[in-house]
Amino acid sequence: MIELTYYGHSSFLVKINDKKLLFDPFIRPNSKAASVNVSDIRADYVLISHGHEDHVADAEEITKNSDATLVSNFEIATWFSKKGIQKYHPMNQGGSKIFDFGKLKYVNAVHSSTLPDGSGGGLAGGFIVEHSEGCFYFAGDTALTYDMKLIAAEFKIDFAIMPIGDNFTMGIEDAIRAADFVGTDKIIGMHYDTFPYIEIDLEVAKKAALQAKKELILLNIGESITL
Fold first, then answer.
1. What is the pLDDT of residues 32-44, one digit of tens each?
2. Which protein family is named in the record (predicted)?
3. Sign of CA dihedral 117, 56, 83, 87
4. What is the pTM of this model?
5. What CATH architecture does domain 3-226 belong to?
6. N or C: the chain end with fewer CB closer than 10 Å?
7. pLDDT by residue (tens digit) across 139-191?
8. Would you list the domain boundaries of the chain?
């Protein structure tokens, strides 16, 4: 079993045994996450899917406060190294690495990626985390892509954390198809309702998932669940 805590937008803290993985921390600039105290967050690893501000805003602070290792693509990892992050691990599409929490694979995502200062953020990606308790997929910001079928060919995915907000990423219908592609019936929704562009009808999303025989989990900010 692993514990997952939602900090809003696409920010999740996943505890695997005694290791904590923080994905795409965007908390302080998110008014909906005002109840979350960034200063209290500690992680062993900070994983960044792509360079947009709404995925990296609190990464530097939390990484430094935690003495964590920042993991992302080469461009993003080296960009943070120039901001004083001493522990970082660069990856790129298709690459895998064994860490002390398990195996991490950086996979394709279809999305743009520019860092807050306008620097190129390389190619956007997602993460497969295979660990002693199972395996999950953090999609990052992405469109539906046929490459997702390759994930099911290599991994047994217990659940997938996927964007459902539409407009900039997949909406719920494509997320359901993506879940089919990667071979899971459990979707944890992210990247919705933070901004007007990605506000959605949650009841419609829940109904679509139910009709497709998928479990759609929508967490409240600050809520934790065990999976």
1. 999 999 999 999 9
2. Belongs to the UPF0173 family.
3. negative
4. 0.98
5. 4-Layer Sandwich (3.60)
6. N
7. 999 999 999 999 999 999 999 999 999 999 999 999 999 999 999 999 999 99
8. 3-226
